[in-house]
Specification:
Layout (H helix, E strand, L loop, with lengths): L6 H4 L5 H14 L9 H20 L10 E11 L2 E6 L2 H17 L14 E5 L6 E10 L3 E6 L5 E5 L3 E3 L12 E5 L2 E2 L10 H12 L3 E8 L6 E6 L12 H7 L4 E2 L4 H5 L1 H16 L15
Parallel strand pairs: 8-11
Antiparallel strand pairs: 1-2, 1-10, 2-8, 3-4, 3-7, 4-5, 5-6, 9-12, 10-11
Helix pairs in contact: 6-8
């Protein structure tokens, strides 16, 4: 229970059956990293991925480009591949502020016996500023500690049990104000791709996204997955792809065009334009292309 099977290499091993059997046994016994393993959730995820693969295999047909502009602010940049946005609309902002005020006043008093489970919504006290927020329990840890994700902002942290309370029912109905998203058309450095360039890519992305109100076009809404967005500065007045955040991170040399993304199927022209920008950055040896083509071995 202290490792998971890496499919890409296991499939080439003569011992893959034994590796997968060992992992299944650890999952069934709830050992190590599988202590909170949910077989049903994994089955649902696998089924969804299978559907997506089927749709991709059967769907070489071109989809129509989407036009759905939203005023947004990035509330959390968790990594190069994971970010959260809030809708920058006065009514939404007022709702969130009202709820935050309510949580500050009405959060339950602490008491023994409250033992939330993974996936449960709770009221959690954020370490910085001692503010109470809605949160979801991500993982139950030893020694009475919990990994939580703040559903209205997207950030996460680990808290002691005395900083977590039951969430009053009147605060549970509203949808999360933080919406998971990613940059459309692109694949950015991560632990699985161009890992050495993750810090530089992240720093560049922070400069382009944080502390700004932006206009985002929803290029794709994949089922049970982050929105695929193209971000624009509202001062542009019109959506110029080369001047979007997506175009700028690609031009800086910290992105690879992702032709398999749903957004790329919706808008092949935009995908092709970003592919040109990536190619120009590669030729100029900018960013992660400084030593040549990173994709040669893929």
């Amino acid at each position: 229970g202290l490792a998971s099977v890496f499919d890409a290499s296991a499939e080439h091993s003569h011992h893959k059956a034994l590796l997968y059997a060992a992992e299944r046994d650890a999952k069934a016994a709830g050992r190590g990293m599988w202590a909170d393993y949910d077989a049903e959730a994994e089955a649902r995820t696998a089924a969804e991925k299978a559907k997506e693969e089927q749709a991709r295999a059967a769907g070489d047909r071109q989809l129509e480009p989407r036009i759905e502009f939203l005023d947004v602010a990035v509330s959390e940049l968790a990594s190069t591949t994971s970010l959260f946005v809030q809708i920058a609309k006065k009514s939404k902002i007022d709702e969130l502020e009202s709820m935050m005020t309510g949580l500050a006043i009405d959060h339950p008093a602490g008491g023994a016996g409250f033992a939330p489970k993974a996936g449960q919504l709770v009221c959690a006290c954020y370490t910085v500023g001692d503010e109470w927020h809605r949160a979801r329990i991500v993982k139950v840890l030893p020694a009475g500690r919990f990994e939580v994700s703040y559903i209205d902002f997207g950030n996460a942290e680990t808290l002691d049990a005395d900083r977590i309370r039951p969430l009053p029912a009147k605060f549970a109905a509203a949808e999360p104000y933080a919406i998971p998203a990613q940059l459309a058309f692109l694949r950015l450095p991560s632990g699985e791709f161009a890992a050495d360039y993750v810090p530089e890519a992240y720093a560049t992305l922070r400069q382009l996204l944080e502390g700004r109100q932006l206009v985002a076009n929803v290029e794709a809404r994949p089922p049970n997955a982050p929105l695929q967005l193209t971000f624009y500065d509202p001062k542009l007045g019109r959506p110029v792809l080369e001047q979007s955040v997506n175009g700028e991170i690609a031009a800086a040399g910290f992105a690879l065009a992702d032709r398999r993304a749903l957004a790329s199927r919706h808008n092949t022209a935009a995908a092709a334009k970003l592919e040109e920008i990536v190619a120009e950055a590669r030729t100029a040896r900018r960013g992660m292309w400084e030593y040549g083509d990173l994709t040669a071995d893929e």
